[in-house]
Amino acid sequence: MNFRASQPAAFFDLDKTIIARSCSFAFGREFLHNGLITPVTALQLSLAQTLYRIAGHSSEQMDATRDQLLSMVTGWEVQTVRRITNETLQQVVSPTIYAEAKELIAHHQRLGHDVVIVSASPRDLVEPIARELGVYQVAASELAVQDGRYTGDVLFYCKGENKAQAIREFAEVYGYDLERSFAYSDSATDLPMLEIVGTAVAVNPDRGLRRVAVEQGWEIKVFKNPVPLLSPRHRSRVTVPALVLLACGVGAWAFHRSPRNAFGFFRTSNPTT
After folding, report:
1. 13 in catalytic set
2. 13, 124, 186, 206: which one is catalytic?
């Protein structure tokens, strides 16, 4: 394999680092329109998206969300999901890409750095977004498939230390010098990924990551320039306090349903992790 020895690379988390939402929740309306989920489930996905955008996800919430989404997609045809994501990407995800992230990716590419997106979301959702950005290397969660349908099991969960391991494998295969490489993320759950490169950058960091970034002297970037998710007419009617109250109300309702899981919208399966 031909590659430049000891070249730097740039590793990007996806949700709230490159895009202003969770790509795992993003296609709920499209799945509804294609008959894969009910209107109630679509609403629950939308509310979960609002909660995520306001408060983010802890490690435990990420695991719970993984299990719930796996339960939802079990039995779905892989080709149907790929068709929906590719056909609706421009309407669903592209308007939420941070302009600052897009420019930063292009900057690394101009410098000759390979760019890799490293995400806990499923590969079938991540790869179309990566292609939209001109990125062709992805580390993402791998879902088990049998007879063309998702089984509900996970072959590889690209979270935490597994993200770091995926980066090490990229470095071994492509000859990346991790000491000269860069990593960008918004979440303290990605500390293993940030700690193995020479330059770690906190983007829109949650409280835990901000604390570590300040302690370690890492750069903190604030990305806030996606194309608005709501039209100006609707933005004037939906204020930040209203969204906060909505999120708190939904969170309290979900917590009441299941104190161990504030995102308990779907029947939880027990996938192999």
Report:
1. yes
2. 13
